[in-house]
Here is the input.
Amino acid sequence: MEMTDQIEATAREIGERVRPQLEDAKRRLSSANDKVIEYIKENPGTCLLGAVALGFIVGKIARRA
Amino acid sequence: METPEKNPSEKSPANGRTADENAHSLGQRIDRVSGSAQEAWGQTRDAFSDLSDAIDIKGRVRRQPYGTLAAALGIGYVLGGGIFTPLTSRIVRLALRIGVRAAFLPLLKDQVAGLADALADGDGDGAGRAAGKGHKASKRT
Here is the structure.
């Protein structure tokens, strides 16, 4: 019983310690996602051409392999 | 030391023209080439803008940026000749597996839950055992 309580307490402590980092990572990911979407919307031609070129290269590599 | 100055009106021995005339004709030629290049560039730009208006690329990108990029990536992949390759077959197999699971699992879960409910409503030990099995199955899924 005592051991269970101890494990629970440790888990809670770890959770509380990790939560801010998780929140921070989430915020950063969200911000990066917004930036990427904004960039794509501002430069659609460049992004599309880049994607086609990347796909072409991957296709070539897949064909060769 | 005196350097001999060239007179622009002196005729060159190669074509019998003066240096002025040569420069003038070269300038004209450059002007002509630049004019036709500008015209070709303008036509290409018009064609591209017509095409992009027809497909509404900007609208699509604004609505679904990642989807449009994925489509462009796929077009490039097909153009690169990657369609009939082992990598494609592997990707398709994986996508099918995920799709089938995503489509059938909720259905199967509902069926099992319904069966378990029906059996639990009924009387007898067998019904209870069957409900237990159904519960286990739904847990497993």
